[in-house]
Structures are given as structure tokens and as C-alpha cells.
Design goal:
The chain has 5 helices and no strands. The chain is mainly alpha-helical.
């Protein structure tokens, strides 16, 4: 049973790291967008605010990648959990689960990511409109 527990522990560490990376990406995204807002208020330059769209999209892509990797490793964990002790080979290959886990694009448009990054994109759009005095 020791090999199985060690393998599951290794996989759990990876899942925790992916979740931590996702959390850090979200934090950096909010920090960067806030900094752009603060810097842009000095000149009220709409183009400077609009630049914030690019990093938000890049962070969204990166976050989707981490979330998909986390889901792949969770599937691997489930497989190891049900595998016989004598069959444990300490493989970290998630390729057999790529057809089971949603594609990267579907993960990017999962409810949690759309709500988080969509809210940031809407906030940027509202600030751009407010600076241009359209609303």
C-alpha cells in the first residue's frame, strides 16, 4: 500500500501546485489591471486603459491551462486510487485522460473563469466608457 500512497501523494502535490498557480494568476491579473487603472487616471488616456485587455486575455489563457492540467491530474489520481498496488508504476502521464477532460477552450469558458475574467473585462470596458464620458 506504500507505493500507492506515495504515488497518490505525488499527484496530489501537482494538483495543489496547479491550484496555487491558478490562484496566483488571478491575483496578478487583478493587481495588474488595478495598476493600469491607477496609472491611466493621471492622463485619462483611453488607449492606456485599453492596454489592460491584453494581459487579462493572457492571464485567462494561462489560468485555463492550469485548470485543465489540474483536471487531468485529478483523473490520474482517481485512476491510481483504484489501481491494484502491484500495478503502481509511478507514471505521471495524463495523456490517456485528454479525451475525457474538457478541451482547453472549453475549460477557458467554464463558468468560474468566465465569471472572473468576464467581470474584469466588463470593468475595463466601463472605465474606458467613463473616461470617454460615453456613459
Amino acid at each position: 500500500m506504500e507505493n500507492k500512497l506515495k504515488h497518490m501523494e505525488m499527484i496530489q502535490n501537482i494538483v495543489n501546485r496547479m491550484a496555487s498557480n491558478s490562484f496566483l494568476v488571478k491575483g496578478w491579473c487583478v493587481t495588474l489591471v488595478s495598476a493600469v487603472f491607477v496609472l491611466s487616471t493621471k492622463d485619462a488616456n483611453t488607449m492606456f486603459i485599453a492596454v489592460a485587455f491584453f494581459p487579462v486575455l493572457m492571464f485567462w489563457i494561462l489560468d485555463a491551462y492550469f485548470l485543465r492540467q489540474e483536471r487531468l491530474f485529478r483523473k490520474l489520481y482517481d485512476q491510481v486510487r483504484t489501481t491494484n498496488e502491484s500495478s503502481i508504476d509511478f507514471s505521471m502521464n495524463t495523456a490517456p485522460f485528454t479525451a475525457i477532460v474538457a478541451s482547453w477552450l472549453r475549460v477557458a469558458f467554464s463558468q468560474t473563469l468566465v465569471l472572473f475574467y468576464g467581470a474584469i473585462l466588463i470593468a475595463i470596458l466601463l472605465v474606458v466608457l467613463l473616461v470617454n464620458r460615453i456613459i
